[in-house]
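thought: fold this chain, then report.
action: predict
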Amino acid sequence: MQRDFRLQGMTSEHHQALVLAGRLRQACRQGGVSQEHLRSTCRTFEQDLNPHFEIEEQLILPALAAAGRRDLVDRTIEEHRQLRALIVAAASSEDATEHLQAFADVLTAHVRFEERTLFDAVQQILTPEALKRLATIRPHHRPTRNRTRVVSGTRIE
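observation:
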């Protein structure tokens, strides 16, 4: 099913989550995760992933539950719980590598589930008003090419 344009912001965030998971897997294969990598991952979780989860939990999942799709709701909530627990475990561990490897694996499977299954149901069940609200909360920003920026007084093309 073609993705509704109002979900593209959420889909873009899913792409960024897959990039994070890939970087974590690569770091884990190369001998472990540094403290800076761990801090960066925790920061990304707090600033990007957890707010994304909260929007799903507050706007999407109640509509799916009301439509009788408890199976999708339960799986989504359980995977969010697992991901939150893995970040907490990684942050409090002497060696976060094992926890972050598991986090990367669960995150990848979760994003694929949402893109392949959950969002198809969302497109069929959510009202146009609810979809518009999602688009407003999580707009899709395309990178602008060939844009001139000024950084510290220097023009960057």
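thought: worth noting. The two ends are 38 Å apart (CA to CA).
final: tokens above.
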